[in-house]
């Protein structure tokens, strides 16, 4: 025992500062602070410890302590560049973007070719809406250090936003191949592969390198999503609970939890969760429609029409939302209003959808449009009241002020399209798409497009990059059907039905038409019947069923023809 005790202070033992540096490299701020406190107690100069103390506090998200050490900017000469970079991270974490920029500028003057700094600058620019400049900054980081792990990861995320899941997965795979022990890259790649429809590959990525990612909260969430998509809902609930992300108010986890609650019959819990999510993301049509569905399942028809009747009548109301509102009015015995919503549920929408405005009208009158959200709401308001010239003027001014913002370009595209300048709208949307291609942006690009071949190319590229988008598959199937490519259209419709479009009567009716064109009479009849049973007053479903009825079923044919004529006469 005495011999072992004598080894405790050997010459090979690391100093407290060396031990702290090793813990920081492992991401353990708490243990690092213990060693740094020892160094401080032994008389080490505060300036020599300021950067490591600040980094340890940032790792623990102890922003007050981080500011105590980093805020004064009193660093040793050799650590000053890192110190100001960490100060910039602190300012970013607390939403002080101009102060973050100033700190990064000071770091840049001391270390202009630091790849780590350029990644931080890229994140700052992205957070500030300078999306194009953010891409340039991360490319600058990779120019200085081509194998920089965080630069590769962020570039992969940017590629994923702009070019879809498949392209993003390629970048993240390259990053992981270089840095197989980087857990965050592994988790990003697994999530991206799962969203690209490669569930087995995603699970394999989680299990590699010892399987540390399998039990990580994000890893458990990815597995929960995969299980839910595969119909293993009990497994998905267990994995989601183990992740703890739902309790931490992670939006995607809350969304999955609410969907699982719906399936399990926990309607009160699901409705409350969708209500909270909708309050935070009122433009998210999927959350809105699921919230309305939860209200309908709960028998809360009055709440449903109170919340969504106006939205359903507007340009952003989906056919499914109108169907739910219409059925709610039926349940309330208001058949006249029910009919207006059910009729619109079967009608195709064209033109630009005017999204709901939440900014006070007084703000518009005062012209206080300093941020992107206020400007977006102003443009929506101007479009709604028909003042498209003012919408274009304001949107152009904003886009000129922040030329690297994909959001500003999207807003400008909306204004130009509403004003009737499709060429200008296409150009603005294309600039926005170089940063982020969401499905709502694709829908707007299609509305602005005048060339069918271009529209089809846009859809084809988007679906190839995002293969789990049922709405994109349906849209491309329709484009192919118009050109008589029925085999490809049928394959895409089957894909969409597998992804959840089986509750869409238009998708079922379209599949019936494709089957009929391919000479598959019984399959055509089965799909038409399913569409009609789902929504008996849908003209597409009625037409598909009429086209597939046996020739000797004159009574049913006459009944369907009378119903279709009645609908057309409204």
From TrEMBL:
TPR repeats lie at residues 115-148. InterPro entries: TPR-like_helical_dom_sf, TPR_rpt. Keywords: TPR repeat. The keyword Metal-binding does not apply. This is Tetratricopeptide repeat protein. It comes from Qipengyuania flava.
């Amino acid at each position: 025992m005495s011999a072992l005790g004598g080894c405790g202070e050997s010459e090979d033992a690391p100093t407290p500062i060396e031990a702290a540096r090793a813990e920081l490299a492992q991401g353990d701020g708490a243990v690092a602070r213990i060693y740094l406190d020892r160094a401080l107690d032994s008389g080490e100069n505060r300036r020599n410890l300021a950067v490591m103390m600040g980094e340890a506090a940032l790792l623990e998200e102890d922003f007050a302590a981080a500011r105590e050490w980093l805020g004064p900017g009193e660093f040793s000469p050799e650590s000053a560049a890192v110190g100001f970079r960490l100060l910039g991270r602190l300012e970013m974490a607390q939403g002080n973007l101009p102060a973050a920029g100033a700190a990064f500028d000071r770091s840049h003057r001391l270390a202009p070719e630091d790849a780590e700094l350029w990644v931080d600058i890229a994140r700052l620019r992205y957070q500030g809406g300078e999306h194009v400049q953010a891409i340039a900054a991360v490319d600058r980081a990779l120019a200085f250090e081509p194998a920089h792990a965080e630069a590769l990861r962020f570039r992969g995320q940017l590629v994923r936003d702009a070019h879809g899941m498949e392209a993003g997965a390629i970048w993240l795979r390259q990053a992981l191949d270089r840095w197989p022990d980087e857990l965050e890259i592994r988790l990003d790649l697994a999530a991206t592969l799962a969203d690209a429809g490669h569930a087995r590959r995603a699970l394999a990525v989680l299990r590699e390198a010892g399987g540390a990612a399998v039990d990580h909260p994000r890893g458990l969430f990815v597995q929960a999503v995969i299980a839910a998509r595969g119909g293993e809902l009990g497994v998905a609930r267990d994995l989601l609970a183990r992740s703890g992300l739902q309790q931490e108010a992670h939006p995607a986890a809350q969304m999955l939890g609410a969907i699982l609650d719906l399936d399990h019959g926990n309607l009160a819990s699901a409705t409350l969760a969708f209500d909270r999510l909708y309050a935070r993301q009122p433009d998210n049509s999927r959350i809105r429609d699921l919230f309305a569905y939860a209200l309908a399942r709960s028998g809360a028809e009055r709440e449903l029409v109170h919340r969504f009747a106006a939205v359903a009548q507007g340009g952003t109301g989906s056919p499914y939302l109108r169907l739910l509102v219409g059925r709610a009015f039926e349940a309330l015995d208001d058949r006249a209003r029910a009919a207006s919503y059910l009729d619109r549920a079967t009608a195709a929408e064209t033109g630009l959808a005017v999204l709901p405005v939440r900014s006070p009208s007084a703000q518009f009158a005062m012209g206080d449009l300093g941020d992107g959200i206020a400007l977006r709401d102003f443009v929506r308001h101007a479009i709604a009241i028909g003042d498209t010239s003012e919408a274009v003027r304001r949107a152009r001014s904003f886009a000129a002020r922040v030329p690297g913002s994909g959001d500003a370009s999207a807003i400008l595209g909306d204004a130009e399209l509403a004003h009737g300048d499709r060429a200008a709208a296409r150009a603005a949307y294309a600039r926005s798409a170089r940063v982020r291609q969401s499905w709502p942006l694709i829908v707007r690009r299609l509305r602005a497009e005048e060339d069918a071949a271009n529209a089809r190319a846009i859809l084809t590229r988007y679906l190839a990059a995002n293969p789990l988008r049922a709405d994109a598959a349906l849209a491309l199937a329709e484009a192919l059907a118009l050109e008589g490519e029925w085999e490809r259209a049928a394959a895409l419709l089957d894909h969409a039905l597998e992804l959840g479009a089986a509750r869409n009567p238009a998708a079922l009716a379209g599949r019936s038409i494709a089957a009929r064109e391919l000479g598959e009479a019984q399959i055509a009849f089965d799909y038409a019947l399913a569409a009609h049973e789902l929504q008996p007053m849908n003209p597409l479903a009625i037409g598909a069923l009429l086209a597939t009825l046996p020739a000797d079923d004159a009574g049913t044919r006459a009944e369907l023809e009378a119903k279709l004529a009645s609908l057309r006469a409204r």
